[in-house]
Amino acid sequence: MKKHLKLGFYIFFVPVFLWLFLLIVLPQIDLFLMSLKFENDAGNMVWSLENYREFFTEKVYWYTFARTAIYSILVTFLTFVVTFPIAFYITKVVSPKYKGFMTILLLMPFWVSELVRVYGWMILLRESGVINFFLMKFGLIHKPIEMLYNDVTMVMGLVYTSMLFMVVPLISALEGMDDSYIEAGMDLGASKFIIFFKIIIPYAAPGIVSGSIVVFMLTLGNYLTPNLMGGKNSLWFTEQIYNQFIASFNWNQGAAFGFLLLILSSAIIWIGLKISRQNLTKALS
């Protein structure tokens, strides 16, 4: 019996270990070592912190870094604001026989790739797009308006592409909530505001935290949507990493930027968990 249990343990453990070590740990170690190498004036690769020093001395890197972090937090918050009423409606308001249908409708846009969804928005918002066509047709504007390539459009696109990763944990969290908690609050005379902040939000906290972590990490590392919808003004930090790796062929500098982004992501998630008094293991379970 013990022999079978031991064999089963290795059958399941070995693939997980190999996946973690070969695809995540080993490349990260190699990337970190690469970030510590710098080509000196003689053309030789030497161990140095020069790649990190350049980040701290170049203002544009700092500005892009901070801007990416602030906008990622904003996108995470807006995604929660947009998706929470949807999740609450599906789990607590709509008839149970329509829940599956509503959930499928919600997930259907995400069956196609992010690239197709972003181009869909670009068709709507560009100067010769659908929205400008109808605005001009009804005489509301006299010439097309450029709606793309600004921060508002970029944030809207990031919220849209991240909705799935917030709404699914919220639905899972709210589905486990007994409706009698809300009914008890109403019977005791609590206002909707009190019920929302004292009963619903605390109960859904693990779902909110897990959804926020995923959305924040995906937004922080997103390259496609900021690049296509924000244009040249997007100033997203992943674009700096791409430029170092692909445009400048400076893999050492790109590796340093990648590690700084990883540190930023980990630090903000840690702060968020401390502020919300949530446990990472519990939130992601």
Keywords:
single chain, mainly alpha, 13 helices, 78% helix, 2% strand
Strand content: under 5%
| Cα end-to-end separation | 30 Å
Helix residue percentage: over 70%
How many strand segments? Answer: 2
Radius of gyration: 24 Å
Largest sheet: 2 strands, antiparallel
Round the mean pLDDT to the nearest integer and report it: 87
Brief summary of the model shown:
The protein is mainly α and 285 residues long. The protein contains 13 helices and 2 strands. The longest helix has 35 residues, at 59-93.
Secondary-structure blueprint:
Elements: H1 2-35, E1 37-39, E2 45-47, H2 50-57, H3 59-93, H4 96-107, H5 114-125, H6 130-137, H7 151-175, H8 179-187, H9 192-220, H10 224-230, H11 237-247, H12 251-276, H13 280-284
Antiparallel strand pairs: 1-2
Q: What would you say this structure looks like, in words?
A:
The structure is a single chain. With 285 residues, the chain is mostly helical. It contains 13 helices and two strands; from the N terminus they run αββαααααααααααα. The chain has a two-stranded antiparallel sheet with strand order 1-2. Strand 1 and strand 2 (45-47) form a beta hairpin. Helix 1 (2-35) crosses helix 12 and helix 3 packs across helix 9. The protein is globular.
